[in-house]
Design goal:
Elements (H helix, E strand, L loop, with lengths): L14 E5 L4 H13 L2 E6 L4 H13 L4 E5 L5 H15 L3 E6 L14 H29 L3 E6 L9 H21 L4 E8 L5 H14 L5 H10 L8 H12 L10 E4 L6
Helix pairs in contact: 1-2, 1-8, 3-4, 4-5
The protein binds nicotinamide-adenine-dinucleotide.
Family: Belongs to the short-chain dehydrogenases/reductases (SDR) family.
Protein name: NAD(P)-binding protein
Pfam family, one: adh_short
Length: about 270
């Protein structure tokens, strides 16, 4: 394992709330912020419970507090309840909120049903907006500023069906929230990864294999070779590094941005 970063003094005693952190990018962000010194609250859906328990254990091994709360981000009431539970268990110290949970389906537009599109919008967009607002309300109440981060994508810049439409909207909402909440000392940004080695991309790969009639693994391999200028697939930890920077003092003059971290895949 790589050497652990030392905790940042300013992070100690503060909480980061992260949705969809049982695996992939969310898990890497949760672990990185814990190593930086934050206590962590992970909000995820019931089927992810066992994986979340492992993340909680890993974070506790860094000497930080970690809790698991249940929330399907498609249900606003569950998001508000998850924030309330976080505050009641870890104290009124919410400093970071990461709306990471998201879903993608790969389908030609002519095969997209209303139900299919509604699910992506409820999860990727309404879920993010409700998470941001619920977290900001708590941060405003605490009156000590905060950092709000959302999951964008290179699809926030180059449209990829209904998924891309939700991620374009994430970019717009990030700007709007940053503008309104700067007065409270809250900075709002989003990360825009490319092809990250997570279960989500394994799913995309399987879907593309079916659509393009190629073998499983081929779609990912071809796109990594063709599109990623830095020559390797992105690891979830690469995204976590950007988040750690954006929430830190180093990022103090950055707000309203959807920052690409994609190894040049968008070039
Ligand atoms: N993997 C990539 O290449 C990539 C690229 C760009 C952007 N992103 C974005 O990053 C985010 C994380 O992606 P990932 O690849 O780690 O995904 P993933 O599918 O590997 O993990 C998603 C997590 O979200 C949770 N989740 C699913 N539905 C949920 C719901 N309704 N409520 C709460 N939690 C829910 C899952 O249990 C899981 O923990 C997503 O928003 C995704 O769109 C991913």
């Amino acid at each position: 394992m790589a050497a652990l970063a030392s905790p940042i003094k300013a992070a100690l005693g503060k909480t980061a709330f992260i949705t969809g952190a049982s695996q992939g990018i969310g898990r890497a962000i949760a672990c990185r912020l814990a190593r930086d010194g934050y206590d962590i609250s992970i909000a995820d859906i019931p089927p992810a419970k066992e994986r979340v328990a492992e993340v909680v254990k890993e974070i506790e091994s860094y000497g930080r507090k970690a809790i698991s709360v249940t929330a399907d981000v498609r249900e606003p009431k569950q998001i508000y309840a998850a924030i309330d539970e976080t505050i009641s268990k870890l104290g009124p110290n919410l400093f970071i909120s990461v709306a990471n949970a998201g879903v993608t389906q790969v389908k030609p537009l002519l095969e997209c049903t209303p139900e299919f599109m509604e699910n992506e919008i409820r999860l990727n967009l309404l879920g993010l907006m409700n998470t941001h607002i619920a977290a900001a309300k708590q941060m405003v109440k605490q009156n000590s500023g905060g950092r709000i981060i959302g999951a964008g994508s290179i699809a926030s810049y180059q449209n990829l069906g209904p998924y891309g439409a939700t991620k374009f909207a994430v970019r717009g909402f990030t700007e709007a929230a940053a503008k309104e909440w700067a007065q409270y000392g809250i900075r709002v940004n989003a990360y825009a990864p490319g092809i990250v080695d997570t279960p989500m991309w394994d799913h995309i790969d399987r879907e593309l294999a079916r659509i393009e009639n190629i073998s499983v693994g081929a779609a990912k391999e071809t796109r990594v070779k063709r599109d990623i200028k830095l020559g390797r697939i992105q690891q979830p930890e690469d995204v976590a590094k950007l988040v750690a920077f954006l929430v830190s003092e180093e990022g103090e003059y950055i707000t309203g941005q959807t920052v690409k971290t994609c190894g040049g895949a968008s070039l």
